[in-house]
Amino acid sequence: MGRRVVLKLSGEAFADPQLGYGIDPKTVQRIANEIHEGNGDGCQVAVVVGGGNIFRGLSLAAEGMDRANADYMGMLATVINALALRDAIERVGTPTRVQTAITIAQVAEPYIRLRAIRHLEKGRVVVFAGGTGNPFFTTDTTAALRAAEIGAEIVLKATRVDGVYDADPETVPDAKRLVDVTYMEVLQRGLQVMDSTAITMCMDNDLPIRVFSVAEPGNVTSAIRGDDVGTIVH
Questions:
Q1: What is the model's pTM?
Q2: CATH number where 13 lies
Q3: pLDDT in single tens digits along all 234 residues of the chain
Q4: Which of 195, 191, 199 is nearest to 172 (CA)?
């Protein structure tokens, strides 16, 4: 078996750089090209997508919407992103399957663990959508869960910054980037990597997390190949 990874893409990775929301075809195609290149190196790539560029459930829940209802709407947004990513990856020649945790039989397969593993073994990219299928769980937790289920060796967290910092680099100018950090340090110091449920699941299953910038061209391919980019959490 080749190197098997789970790539976590936030919804913001798909957004128009100027608007900050929606789906930017050029951005999606660039990411798809990099996934295609990484998958072609003998790696097996599964992707978990968020939906924040279309709908952010937590924001509306904070404004009074029922949390479970808001989360289900967010799950549907991830399906839209997954279909866009599948189209872009297949356009460059890599067979891709979308599997959803909520049943939408006309547009995607249901999530079936062994079927997902079989797709990966055949060289296909698998895009997981619909979160875990349950409200109150983030797509970060979905990435940790799916990685454990399919036997991935690492979770690759593509984000807006180039690693994990000791403070928020967007508000603290002299924040320092960490090369590597432990799960417990992340939890104890409240570092912005993934939510605590996802971190704990990775820790319990001995799944390292690599955090890197999706905005830097080539980083997705490098992370899939196992190059030393960003920060490693272990």
A1: 0.93
A2: 3.40.1160.10
A3: 469 999 999 988 888 777 777 899 999 999 999 999 999 878 999 999 999 888 876 676 667 888 898 899 999 999 999 999 999 999 999 999 999 999 999 999 999 999 999 999 999 999 999 999 999 999 999 999 999 999 999 999 999 888 898 888 778 888 898 999 999 999 998 888 899 999 999 999 999 999 999 999 999 999 999 999 999 999
A4: 191
Number of residues written out for the chain: 234
Domain holding 108, by residue range, is 4-233
Q: How many domains does the chain have?
A: 1
Picking from 69, 132, 74, the residue whose alpha carbon sits closest to that of residue 100 is 132
Is the distance from CB of 214 to CB of 35 less than 8 angstroms? Answer: no
Q: Which residues pair with 8 in a beta bridge?
A: 48, 157
**β-sheet bridge partners, residue 96:** 125
The Cα 94–Cα 234 span in angstroms is 31
Contact 8, 143 (CB under 8 A): yes
